[in-house]
Structures
1.
Amino acid sequence: MHDAPSAKELIEAVKAFIDKTAAPQLTGHAAFHARVASNALATVLRELEIRPQAEADEKARLESLLGKTADSVTALNRDLCEAIRSGAVNLSTSGLLAHLKSTTIAQLSVDQPGYSGLKTATR
Amino acid sequence: MGTGSEIEKPLAAWAAAHFGAGARLEALKRLSGGASQETWAFDVVSADGPQPLILRRAPGGAAAARSSEAVSLATEAALLGATSTSGVRVPAVLHVSPPGSDIGEAFVMRRVAGETLGRKILRDDEYKVARTRLTRDCGEALARIHAVPVAGLPDLPRSLGEDQIAKYEAIYRGFDMPRPVLELAFAWLKANAPAPAAPVLVHGDFRLGNLIVDEGGLGAVLDWELAHIGDPREDIAWLCVNSWRFGHSEKRVGGFGDLPELLDAYHAAGGAKFAPADIDWWEILGSLKWGVMCMIMYSAYKTGADPSVERAAIGRRVSENEIDLINLFEGLGRHA
């Protein structure tokens, strides 16, 4: 498959169209939604950059925490949730909070990199 | 939606009956915000001069769209009366309009001058003095709300900590989107629940955004639709939830104050004596609730009920609450 333009380039082009051409011509609710749309595309751009490595790291940590391997991060997270719900894993389980913190920092770096709580966590 | 023309005539008729035949209705304007009801600003100009007023009205004049836990507009009006009697600064209610009337299900209250936008209150020079007084003002207001005699109030939902955990956990499980941080919060809250306090009137959404702040401090407490009978620590903690600090995380109380000062003012005004550590469990519950609420708003996109970008994007705010929860877990014991 070709990647010229790449997914990243296409999203950047659409984002630039919203920011420079469409949004300045809009008012009221439509202008607000254009800003939200532009921010959503910025999230996608950060995700393209950050997710592959972050998710590989998350998977490795989950496998070590749960002592098993699996095909997907989703399946491992489901297992972790069940272990927390059953009480087998809790706040004092070694490595749990550190894992959740690393995962959430990566998630927020995609979702809301300017959020105040992220600064508190990485201070 | 409710248009200005639909309510202008009946509102003008009410103004003439209330303020005298010469009273004129001016500057009727629908205010933004508040999906569960309409809020209109207007002035009545009479022999006594202009009266700035607010109309709170069920959408289209008929109740239906309020969420199951929201109290009725008539109850909200009654709460404004009861809390005013107990010394809470609230807008005075001038008229309650029943369902089926010309105005529709609604009430009219005085429009209190001041600012509600959290970012402005925390940043603008105009509120510099207010910011130094707001912590004590909020402590006193909360103590007075929690001291309102429950016997004299209209029927209110009863919702203690364990009820809220059960409710939000059922919603979270219904989504089948497992998130380990939220899972940990549910498990931890259940394993560490404090002894319940004596139930009191709880405002339910006491935070910047729902408070009118003027240059001198707290002007009025608004938005009583989530009022219920519950635990006083819920209100104190909700004001501390990081989502309502608008970026000023270092100030635990709403981005403007320190918790010991709030708790001192609360106790001095007749409230129970709480320590900052007593608030931790409730702040964790508050962040968890807001995280699940973001999931609820996103689900409106996922199910097709609301196809807007905004509803889709709000699903990417759940992680804000997750980091707040992690920061709270790391801080446990620090306040002991």
2.
Amino acid sequence: MSPLDDTSTGIGRNRRPGDIRLDLRLIADMIDPGSRVLDIGCGDGALLDYLVYEKQVDGRGIELSMDGVHSCVSHGLSVIQGDADTDLKDYPSGAFDYVVLSQTLQAMRAPRKVLEELVRIGRRAIISFPNFGYWRIRASLLLMGRMPVTERLGYEWYETPNIHFCTIKDFTSLCDRLDITIERSVILGRDNRPTRLASADGIANFFGEQGVFMLRRNGTQE
Amino acid sequence: MTAPIPFRQPPSGGSAAGPLKGTVSEGANLRVVLGTERPMRLDCGVELENFTIAYSTYGTLNTDKSNAILICHALTGDHFVADYHPVTGKPGWWSMLVGPGRPIDTDRYFIICSNVIGGCMGSVGPAETNPATGKPYGLDFPVITIADMVRAQKLLIDHLGIDKLFCVVGGSMGGMQVLQWTVSYPDNVFAALPIATAARHSAQNIAFHEVGRQAIMADPDWCAGDYLNQGKRPHRGLAVARMAAHITYLSEAALHRKFGRNLQNRTTVTYGFDADFQVESYLRHQGITFVDRFDANSYLYITRAMDYFDLAAEHGDVLANAFRHKGNATPVRFCLTSFSSDWLFPTPESRAVVHALNAVAANVSFVEVKTDKGHDAFLLEEPEFHQVVRGFMDGCAEHRGLTRKRTEPA
């Protein structure tokens, strides 16, 4: 089950080149061609497929759902069935140029531990997640008194795989605590449209529907 | 389910003569004598020279010899992958997977499969004649290992003039050989597809093998391994060994689905020891037909080779170290597949290999196929598994620069 109900990512050689969801494209644009990339929670492999075939990266994936893994491997992608919460510890430090966690952080049992592993395994980590501080979500809780079910987060509370929601503010403060540097951030508004908001900006936490962050571990913490 | 049509129709034209030097022979049931220039040293210390390997090929080797796939067979398999079997007359054991347009595409790849050493379908083994005595080896045949089987395969590949195999693929014991290939000859393998296998044989599996061996050795017709010289065959022992082993290839669910507690051609139990139940009748049939095509001593030697298999043992008991190569991760691209109801080589065994490969950041895919067919699933109609094989092969072919269509030899 994908943490988001929007799974129309369009994998496969049949898709048109460059035809991937906007937020995935944004992540792809942050990645240098030919680099080594680990995509955690790669779903049906849309991003990985794009990276491997359009940007010639040495790409690998981890995916929890058998359907996702099956789809990826059947398309010739290097993907293992595994659980980010338990399987990241096997990888050596600095094994990848980029480790990507796209729309999956909120489904982790131990997001803090996962975050630490990401910046250990990858020289850079790229993380995107839905912002629980987004005004529509706040409004849903404030005005309706109900757990928000939005277009992007389409699960009822009793069946959602998303167990650790956070706001952009929560996330940046955790990065501070873990001595992780946010090198870049892009705040996406409605319909995955990038805004010019900075992550440290309180307004971003209100108007941003999701955030994409490029992280690295502080050198002093080596 | 319709029976797959094998690659070649019977009678398959085999050649008993070795291929001419400098040419690649293609066809069913070929023979080559290896270890002619220098003997092959086995793990046990014995040196084998001028030994025969039986093999089959399918498809055409391309001009730069980059489209060769080696298929490694399982314990009781042989090199009749996609031909009719000469003894049973049945389609080859992987006709489902190997053929024109099939996941292992004979229109695209040059496929090789050899009978393992220690086997009994033409390669050197305990049933073959010992040149020193002019009689069958019997127990004088040296104890062989999975690594020895792979050494012989490497000599065959060298003989065929192939430097780098596009892919090595196999299930069960075949998967052990695949893993051994990647460790022994990482520079000579582009991709590896070990299926329903493990990096070492578990205590439980050694135990089952020991039951089989004891059944053979308890048969008076085994004659301490000398039955061929005495004109006897330990059929009863070998059949019991096969019956016990066969149970381990199936899942409880598969046995239940196939037979349940159904009675065999009778309406009530007979209060005797006939095959009252269908499952008994089925197992007896499996045992009886097996002895026609398999040599009892071969069964002892090959089960022993599996028992001795432990890939981590030579690498400080750290499996990941087996996959380090010249200070880096193994260059081989892996795809591991397990089957959810396989209790002989359960998923955690494959996962252990995946974890070891992750520890060196090797290129690895891993799929557990949901099925209730047990260990035997790798030999059966499993569309999801076949898609995985096809997808992995296609992806690797793209990275290897193999064109979609077969390159015609110049």
